[in-house]
TrEMBL record, chain A:
Keywords: Acyltransferase, Transferase. PROSITE patterns: KS3_1 (PS00606), KS3_2 (PS52004). CDD domains: KAS_I_II. The lineage of its organism: Bacteria, Bacillati, Actinomycetota, Actinomycetes, Kitasatosporales. This is Beta-ketoacyl-[acyl-carrier-protein] synthase family protein. SMART domains: PKS_KS.
TrEMBL record, chain B:
Coiled coil: none annotated. InterPro entries: Beta-ketoacyl_synthase (IPR000794), Ketoacyl_synth_C (IPR014031), Ketoacyl_synth_N (IPR014030), PKS_Beta-ketoAc_synthase_dom (IPR020841), Thiolase-like (IPR016039). This is Ketosynthase chain-length factor. Keywords: Acyltransferase, Transferase. PANTHER family: POLYKETIDE BETA-KETOACYL SYNTHASE 2-RELATED, POLYKETIDE SYNTHASE-RELATED. CDD domains: CLF (cd00832). It comes from Streptomyces glomeratus. It holds the Pfam family Ketoacyl-synt_C. Residues 1-400 form the Ketosynthase family 3 (KS3) domain. Gene3D superfamilies: 3.40.47.10. Belongs to the thiolase-like superfamily. Beta-ketoacyl-ACP synthases family.
Length: 422, 411
């Protein structure tokens, strides 16, 4: 019999909210955390808005050496990992390190730290043969971003399977999906898994400017992220991290852990179409959704909520609307669908895990977050996107999806656990 | 549970363009470590690398792919083509979602990235390439390979430094076990540029020895670090049943695999590579005595070499199993290193020869049966080890296919 996997702890660092409680308040209030970029002067760039975290590593409890050697992406991951561990009630002393693993998803790894150091060793881009004497000692950890799961594993004392998953913007779904697979096959009993990204840096802005993927709505930063709205014109870059404690069901039950949700299905497919483009019919995302539903032994009628990728590009919004219709049929018109990128932007690899957190909290609290800034839906996007205001209800079975550069399409189903000890 | 077998390989390494050339040069111990030629290394304290010579991308890839790909992605796309061809597959003719690809990455298309960083910081945002958003990132090889071959099944990308090649192959195997008919998996890496080089140097593990053949000497008393290299290998994997059904010839079976993670330095807890080996052997239902050869990680730094030889002594006894480090010819290839070792191990089974560790005089303290000259012997079971910077360990056990379908016999 196949092992079951439940989420027993959640940790979040998000724009406008450090910690799960603040995160959930922000989302359910429909507040947005997008603003004019404050980390550096964005004036030279086409898109000048982002969803930034007000995050101070020292105030969040990292030591000065940790703060120095870790890129911001790793800092966010370690802080959210600490929170999920506290939330799970797991006693660090009591679990078996060899049966504990870590998976962190990240699309662009330590890109911010790399760029900062590049500017120094190249003397502002003047030298091709960059100067090794100005290199910081932890630069190798920025080069190869498996340094991020290393930091998390050291933090919690994991000695089982540890890895970084980097599948672009589906990294945060795929990392949790991988952790679920490792638990199911018996390679671990506890996985701390999630994702992080801190991409708000000049090179990231420039590369999305170049393909006009990000919004130029610089005059209205607070309402710049508008998935499914007729006026949307690109995504808003974000940052953040969400991490989870995932456990084999019996392991969690035995210790009387609170279970937020069971991960019952996960699948990923590739569109094999274009590195940044999407097939308009949403075929591969639909296939991932159907596979995840099959694994969960459910039909579209069972789905109570869909957390959309909802990046706010015309291409995406139409692609996934088509994918929902293709996979859920008539039920696509019944199910509430919302996009939290409208509030916290698109944190690339991290967002998939932040969206899983939103799904688990929706199951827990009987309310789903809205799609903010949705006043006039694109006529092609004709589903119920929960505009502006959170909606109460009972959400036993929820679906979350992701879509990313490289053509990756992922889908995950979470369900209310049948028994809960809390 | 059906077993997963390897039916195709694409090898691109300093030792050769293609598996045949790689094997010839590996058995002949032709060391391909040399002075860096892709940029002027004079100003840097370490100047050797394992580089691929004679690779002309235009000969292998359509011209429209060239502006949008980093050097390492061109290598990966070519290796993927070769693996698919070697497996006798026509990827234009696959059922929907029948094949996926999992690759390991370490630094992405870093040379491409350095050019764009320079454009941004010296000229401004308008000068950054429209391809930068995907040409450098870690997922680029899986993405580009999936597009080129129409692979719409599950795909993935793992980063665990040098352990990545084995971890990606194991993830691909998982998909085969779950019922995906065919998978491509492995790692190809290496994007030598000054910016990446300077970042490599900060690992503190790069040898500064000037003479190329003395720069990477795993298990030698003179070991003083390693040499980075480029290249790797990709494999076609499928269930034994599927291979039989389509009459594919089989290199070997992936019989066992495990990954573990070392506790942080100073914790007082022991390293965990040995546990990965035990778990992999257990999965393969084999005892240590049944292992014919170990392809060691061979870090090339005294402390890490000591740790590995202590583990091998513990599990196999002193001089208890033939051990080899053919990457002494190529340097350590990042995400491609362990994948290349797996290719070499499969070829060793096929040819009945353990390839040598080049240039090394094994230090007696390790008590290893280090193979320093090609050794003719039947190889039915091989263990491949990999360690990634930061604590990553992976161990994979492969087994020679039984019966006539194997790519066996001398050639």
């Amino acid at each position: 019999m196949s092992r079951r996997v439940v989420i027993t702890g959640i940790g979040v660092v998000a724009p406008g909210a450090t910690g799960v409680k603040a995160f959930w308040e922000l989302l359910t209030a429909g507040r947005t955390a997008t603003r004019r970029i404050s980390f550096f002067d964005p004036a030279p760039f086409r898109s000048q808005v982002a969803a930034e975290c007000d995050f101070d590593p020292l105030a969040e409890g990292l030591s000065p050496q940790q703060a120095r050697r870790m890129d911001r992406s790793a800092q966010l991951a370690v802080v959210s990992a600490r929170e999920c561990l506290r939330d799970s009630g797991l006693d660090l002393e009591s679990f078996d390190p060899s049966r504990t693993g870590v998976v962190v998803g990240s699309a662009v790894g330590c890109t911010t730290g790399l760029e900062e150091e590049y500017v120094v060793v190249s003397d502002g881009g003047r030298r091709w043969l960059v100067d090794d004497e100005y290199a910081v000692p932890h630069l190798f950890g920025y080069l190869v971003p498996s340094s991020i799961p290393s930091e998390v594993a050291w933090e919690i004392g994991a000695e089982g399977p540890v890895s970084l998953v980097s599948t672009g913007c589906t990294s945060g779904l795929d990392s949790v999906g991988r952790a679920v697979e490792l638990l199911r096959e018996g390679s671990a009993d506890i996985m701390v898994a999630g994702a992080t990204d801190a991409p708000i840096s000049p090179i990231t802005l420039a590369c999305f400017d170049a393909i006009r993927a990000t919004t130029p709505r610089n005059d209205e930063p607070a309402t710049a992220s508008r998935p499914f709205d007729a006026s949307r014109n690109g995504f808003v870059l974000g940052e953040g991290s969400a991490m989870f404690v995932l456990e084999e069901y019996e392991h969690a039950r035995r210790r009387g852990a609170h279970m937020y949700a069971e991960v019952t299905g996960f699948a990923s497919r590739s569109n094999a179409f274009h590195m940044t483009g999407l097939r308009p019919d949403g075929t591969e995302m639909a296939e991932a959704i159907v596979t995840a539903m099959d694994q969960s032994r459910i039909t579209p009628a069972d789905i109570d909520y869909v957390n959309a990728h909802g990046s706010g590009t015309l291409q995406n919004d139409r692609h996934e609307t088509a994918a929902f219709k293709r996979s859920l049929g008539e039920d696509a018109y019944r199910v509430p669908v919302s996009g939290i990128k409208s509030m916290i932007g698109h944190s690339l690899g991290a967002i998939g895990s932040l969206e899983i957190a939103a799904c688990a909290l929706a199951v827990e609290h009987d309310v789903v977050p809205p799609t903010a800034n949705l006043h006039q839906p694109d006529p092609v996007c004709d589903l119920d996107y929960v505009p502006l205001t959170a909606r109460e209800g009972r959400f036993d079975t929820v679906l979350t999806v992701g879509s990313g550069f490289g053509g990756f399409q992922s889908a995950m189903v979470l369900r209310r656990p049948e028994r809960s000890a809390r | 549970m059906t077993s997963t077998v390897i039916t195709g390989m694409g090898v691109l390494a300093p030792t050769g363009l293609g598996a045949a050339e790689h094997w010839r040069n590996t058995v002949a111990a032709h060391c391909r470590i040399g002075r860096i030629s892709r940029f002027e290394p004079d100003g840097y304290p370490c100047r050797n690398a394992g580089q691929i010579e004679g690779f002309v991308p235009e000969e292998h890839l359509p011209s429209r792919l060239l502006p949008q790909t980093d050097h390492m992605t061109r290598l990966a796309l070519t290796a993927a083509d070769w693996a698919v061809k070697d497996a006798g597959l026509d990827t234009g003719d696959l059922p929907e979602y029948a094949m996926g690809v999992v690759t390991a990455s370490s630094a992405g298309g870093f040379e491409f990235g350095q050019r764009e960083l320079q454009a941004l910081w010296s000229k401004g945002p308008a000068h950054v390439s429209v391809y930068q958003s995907f040409a450098w990132f870690y997922a680029v090889n899986s993405g580009q390979i999936s597009i080129r071959h129409g692979l719409r099944g599950p795909s993935g990308v793992l980063v665990t430094e040098q352990a990545g090649g084995l971890d990606a192959i194991a993830q691909a195997k998982r998909h085969v076990t779950d019922g995906i008919p065919l998978m491509l998996g492995g790692g190809v890496d290496g994007s030598p540029c000054p910016w990446g080089w300077v970042a490599q140097l900060t690992s503190g593990r790069i040898s500064s020895t000037e003479a190329p053949e003395r720069a990477y000497l795993p298990f030698d008393a003179d070991a003083d670090g390693h040499v980075p290299g480029e290249g790797g290998a990709l494999f076609v994997m499928e269930s034994a049943q599927s291979a039989r059904a389509r009459g594919a010839s089989v290199y070997g079976e992936i019989a066992g695999y495990a990954a573990t993670f070392d506790p942080p330095p100073g914790s007082g807890r022991p390293p965990t590579l040995g546990r990965a080996v035990e778990l992999a052997l257990e999965q393969a239902k084999l005892s240590a005595a049944e292992v014919d050869v170990v392809f060691a990680d061979g870090a090339g730094t005294p402390e890490l070499d000591r740790r590995e030889s202590a583990m091998l002594r513990d599990l196999f006894g002193p001089y208890g199993v033939p051990v080899t480090v053919p990457k002494s010819l190529t340097g350590r290839l990042g995400a491609g290193g362990a994948a290349l070792d797996l290719a070499t191990a499969l070829l060793a089974m096929r040819h009945g020869t353990i390839p040598p560790t080049a240039n090394v005089r094994p230090a007696p303290e390790h008590e290893l049966d280090l193979v320093v000259r090609p050794r003719k012997t039947a190889v039915s079971t091989a263990l491949v080890l990999a360690r990634g910077h930061g604590g990553f360990n992976a161990a994979m056990v492969i087994r020679k296919p039984a019966g006539p379908e194997g790519k066996g016999g001398p050639c």
